[in-house]
């Protein structure tokens, strides 16, 4: 039943009739005749025993980076902001076991046993996207200082399921291989422009049809740049995982006949840590066996 609240606003010379504000409870709305529209919603529950990957990509980030004067080929401020935003997502949704990012994208892996949002794809995707986007804006000043954010960024998301550990590792390997390919091209391209004096069109023509070995040779023979010495974050991207760390705090303990005594207390807690490691080989996974769940369901 609807409750009626009457409010009489004084001082309104031409309106002496009380203003009625109608409030309805959620239970009252649920029993309304309009409830049938819920039948139009599609079931988007993710298949059980599968890893749920939510991948975000920046929309029109080429334009966004130009208008905000991102450094080329890599802007550590922007990469740091992306990682900080991703960490915010993981801290909000602790069932994300690993996240991998490079350039303007980040992939978030929910463990296969997660029950967050009843495994609804739309809920998971929208929550990750909104948390990431709002964090990007919130932490902007922390990384870009007084440089203004001209307009809010936009990210789109997708949900993909991977049924086995091998499938998931291959997916993450694909994204890291993509990071290497793109970074090698961009490093060579911008070196030709910034140090070689070529125009962007000339640099594109110079690199057309070249292989990785050709790009490495251009960097080394013409500019004395050894690509292997480039930043691991630029070459391998950023991997975020949960790890146990020791946290030491100082507390004052009251002792009988001794007053208060200062004492260091150490506890173990989980926190999100950042790595720029090779995740294609086995070593990373052997060092962090808790990331993957058993394929035996």
Would you give an account of this structure?
The chain has 297 residues and is an alpha+beta fold. The chain has a domain at 51-181 and 232-238: tRNA(His) guanylyltransferase (Thg1) (Alpha-Beta Plaits). 38% of the residues lie in helices and 25% in strands. The protein has ten helices and eight strands. It has helices at residues 26-30, 61-67, 76-92, 121-138, 140-144, 165-194, 200-207, 212-223, 232-236, 283-287; strands spanning 3-7, 19-23, 51-58, 96-102, 105-110, 155-162, 238-255, 259-275. The strands form two sheets. A six-stranded antiparallel beta sheet has the order 6-3-5-4-7-8, sandwiched between helices. Strand 4 (96-102) and strand 5 form a beta hairpin. It is globular, with a radius of gyration of 27 Å. The two termini are 48 Å apart. Residues 1-17 have low confidence and may be disordered.
Compile the SSE list and pairings:
Blueprint: E1 3-7, E2 19-23, H1 26-30, E3 51-58, H2 61-67, H3 76-92, E4 96-102, E5 105-110, H4 121-138, H5 140-144, E6 155-162, H6 165-194, H7 200-207, H8 212-223, H9 232-236, E7 238-255, E8 259-275, H10 283-287
Antiparallel strand pairs: 1-2, 3-5, 3-6, 4-5, 4-7, 7-8
Helix pairs in contact: 3-4, 6-7, 6-8
């Amino acid at each position: 039943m609807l409750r009626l609240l009457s409010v009489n606003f004084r001082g309104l010379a031409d309106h002496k009739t009380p203003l009625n504000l109608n409030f309805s409870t959620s239970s009252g709305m649920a029993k309304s005749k309009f409830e049938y529209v819920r039948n139009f919603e599609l079931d988007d529950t993710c298949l059980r025993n599968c890893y749920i990957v939510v991948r975000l990509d920046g929309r029109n980030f080429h334009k966004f980076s130009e208008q905000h004067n991102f450094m080329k080929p890599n802007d550590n401020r922007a990469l740091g902001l992306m990682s900080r935003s991703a960490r915010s997502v993981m801290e909000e949704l602790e069932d994300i076991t690993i996240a991998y990012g490079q350039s303007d994208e980040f992939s978030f892996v929910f463990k296969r046993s997660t029950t967050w949002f009843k495994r609804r794809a739309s809920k998971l995707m929208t929550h990750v996207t909104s948390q990431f986007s709002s964090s990007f804006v919130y932490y902007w000043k922390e990384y870009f200082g007084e440089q203004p954010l001209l307009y809010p960024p936009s990210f789109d998301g997708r949900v993909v399921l991977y049924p086995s550990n091998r499938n998931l590792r291959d997916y993450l390997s694909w994204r890291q291989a993509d990071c290497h390919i793109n970074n090698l091209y961009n490093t060579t391209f911008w070196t030709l422009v910034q140090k070689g004096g070529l125009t962007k069109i000339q640099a594109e023509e110079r690199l057309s049809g070249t292989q990785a070995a050709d790009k490495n040779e251009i960097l080394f023979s013409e500019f004395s740049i050894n690509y292997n010495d480039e930043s691991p974050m630029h070459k391998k991207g950023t991997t975020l995982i949960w790890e146990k760390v020791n946290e030491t705090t100082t507390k004052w303990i009251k002792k009988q006949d001794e007053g208060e005594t200062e004492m260091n207390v150490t506890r173990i807690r989980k926190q999100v840590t950042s790595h720029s490691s090779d995740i294609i080989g086995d070593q990373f996974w052997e060092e962090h066996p808790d990331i993957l769940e058993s394929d035996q369901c």
